[in-house]
User: Which sequence fits this backbone?
């Protein structure tokens, strides 16, 4: 399930002034938007129907009808959430939310896809990680994991820099694109470029999303309890779980090769800690 608020945030830099006006109205008046047809909405906002469609497409939807379905879906989730009175400030409720979310998402992960993704990471010479916003939290987690394993790895959060990276990839490189929505135009453009270089692509995004169609393997990030607006809470929990499971598979496949590289990492840590201790003394 895609997060509508994040689709909107990712598209903000791409909207024209008129498109932003349309998208902003839909986001702030979701109930009203559901009652309006394309023509009715365009008349209310004094814009052309084609502009309503374009604004919807920039948010990652085929048109206004599909956008309305997403609005209806998230409003329904919000209503169910309110009925169940789950409050994040309630620690027990938060614990239940986290455990049920992880169980659901884990049950949808394919063992074959995990193995394939881990093998791509093991065999790669260079790993470039593409992520934006809240998704960059997971990106940074993967960056640190791969860094300590001895891989040459970069975390790139800027769309322009992602394009440059994708253009200069080689067939021994792997791109890991992380998106809770799978609709980011910047990420899609970068993956289109990476496809031409022969680099392998791993996506961590909802199944069936546009982004997932540009990958060699997609690790499905599944969210049944997104709320409106979601704010990166559920998405981050699922993404970090997927990366932990992927990393365990990576370690399993790497075997002694990882142990040798990790020993160098421990040497660096020991040296750094020793230096810090001397400074304190």
Assistant:
């Amino acid at each position: 399930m895609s997060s509508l608020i994040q689709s909107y945030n990712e598209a903000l830099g791409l909207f024209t002034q008129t498109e932003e006006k349309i998208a902003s109205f839909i986001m702030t008046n979701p109930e009203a938007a559901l009652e309006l047809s394309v023509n009715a909405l365009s008349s209310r906002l004094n814009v052309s129907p084609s502009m309503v469609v374009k604004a919807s497409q920039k948010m990652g939807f085929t048109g206004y009808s599909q956008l309305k379905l997403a609005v209806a879906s998230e409003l329904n989730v919000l209503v169910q959430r309110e009925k169940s009175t789950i409050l994040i400030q309630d620690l027990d409720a938060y614990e239940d939310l986290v455990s049920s979310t992880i169980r659901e998402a884990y049950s949808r992960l394919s063992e074959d896809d995990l193995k394939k993704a881990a093998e791509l990471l093991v065999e790669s010479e260079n790993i470039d990680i593409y992520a934006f916003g809240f998704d960059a939290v997971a990106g940074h987690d993967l960056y640190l994991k791969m860094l300590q394993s001895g891989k040459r790895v970069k975390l790139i959060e800027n769309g322009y820099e992602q394009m440059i990276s994708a253009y200069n990839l080689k067939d021994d490189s792997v791109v890991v694109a992380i998106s809770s929505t799978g609709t980011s135009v910047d990420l899609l453009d970068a993956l289109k470029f990476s496809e031409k270089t022969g680099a392998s692509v791993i996506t961590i995004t909802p199944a069936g999303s546009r982004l997932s169609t540009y990958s060699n393997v997609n690790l499905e990030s599944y969210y049944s309890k997104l709320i409106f607006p979601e704010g990166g809470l559920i998405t981050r929990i699922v993404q970090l779980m997927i990366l932990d499971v992927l990393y365990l598979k990576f370690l399993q496949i790497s075997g002694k090769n990882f142990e040798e590289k990790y020993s160098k990492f421990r040497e660096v840590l020991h040296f750094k800690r020793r230096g810090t201790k001397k400074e304190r003394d």
Q: What stands out?
A: Confidence is low (pLDDT under 50) at residues 77-87. Residues 256-280 form the longest helix (25 residues).
